[in-house]
Amino acid sequence: MKRFIFLSIVTIVMLFIFKNGAFSTVTVSKVMNKAAEIPKVTWNKLWGMYEEYLVFTEDDKVVDFTSFTDGVAYAKEHKNSEVYLKKDHQLVWSGEKRKNYSVLNIPIVPQNPELPRGCEVTSLTMMLRHAGMDVDKMTLAKKVRKDHTIPVKENGKYIFFGNPNEGFVGNMYSFDRPGFGVYHEPVKDLAEKYLPGKIIDMTGADFEDVLYQIHKGYPVWVIVNVEFKKLGPEFFTTWDSPDGEVTTTFKEHSVLVTGYSKNFVYVNDPIDSVQNKKINIASFKEAWEQMGRQAITYR
User: Fold this and answer.
1) Domain total for the chain?
2) Which of these ranges, 55-64, 106-115, 204-213, 269-278, has the smallest mean pLDDT?
3) Taking the mean position of all CA atoms in its chain, how far away is CA 47?
4) 75 near 93, Cβ under 8 Å?
5) First CA to last CA across the chain, in angstroms?
6) Measuring CA to CA, how many Å separate 268 from each of 50, 108, 187, 201?
7) Which of 114, 173, 110, 113 is nearest to 146 (CA)?
8) Of the residues 94, 123, 156, which one is the last residue of a structural domain?
9) Which domain holds residue 79?
């Protein structure tokens, strides 16, 4: 049965659906991160009205979301749903049972000696190369957004510094100068320049969703710590920034997740140049969650 939809978008969306010879009206509020439900359609010209993530439900509906995390959360509540990236209509999540073991063969890229604080851009280099991009870590180090806040110390501790959510904080090239690192959002924005519309910011998702990406053949960039386990409060510090307080640890680290098994996760670790380093999966998961569940992949 064909369904024809005519759209008039103001504060709310009025959907006039021609069905069984008569028009019916459905009203859907359109607000940030709020799903808009309409009957499933296949015409490419209609895809442009959706947000970035589309959930196809079992009852023949399309529900769109601005974030991967919200889309997957909705899909998990509706049996047999799938989540697609709007760009090229790529599947990014389903309830499909994953394999018990999967390890990708991705060449290692070391961050040292050129980038002693450059684990984030080096891990991104490995991910983008796996996607077929001709990139190098030094170019990414130059291009990643920076936070140039001048640091202030008191009694040997930073009391004022930059915000890693806004850009790379401090100096990436030398431990002789103040520096810290960068979080997922500036890294995602940089990755988008190479793979526009294909970068998936998974931040806030469940760890199982990270493993699903490996199962489908895609590595995942993450933020953890150098110990790969949950840290005690003594390892964390708080400073003020132009955007408010930042609480973090100088043990912050980024790796590329390349595989998993029942008891282990495998990563390409740029700090010691180890490919498919084996780490206890439970400890790694806790470290990742403690650092805000930051994760990026691609399609």
Assistant:
1) 2
2) 55-64
3) 23
4) yes
5) 32
6) 35, 6, 17, 19
7) 173
8) 94
9) 4-94
Any idea which residue has 């699903």 for tokens?
212
| 110, 56: one domain | no
Phi-psi region of 216 (alpha: psi -120 to 50; beta: other; left: phi over 0): alpha
Q: What is the mean pLDDT of residues 12-20?
A: 30
In sequence order, the 6+-apart residues with CB closer than 8 A to the CB of 88 are: 197, 198, 299
pLDDT value at position 30? 32
pLDDT at residue 47, as a whole number: 63
CA distance 254 to 225: 7
Q: Which of 68, 94, 120 is the last residue of a domain?
A: 94
Rg of the chain on CA atoms, in Å: 22
Q: What is the pLDDT of residues 189-207, one digit of tens each?
A: 999 999 999 999 999 999 9
Find tokens 């006039």 and name the residue.
16
**Residue 41: alpha-carbon gap to chain centroid:** 28
What is the distance between the alpha carbons of residues 185 and 108, in angstroms, rounded to a whole number? 23
Q: Do the Cβ atoms of 50 and 87 come closer than 8 Å?
A: no
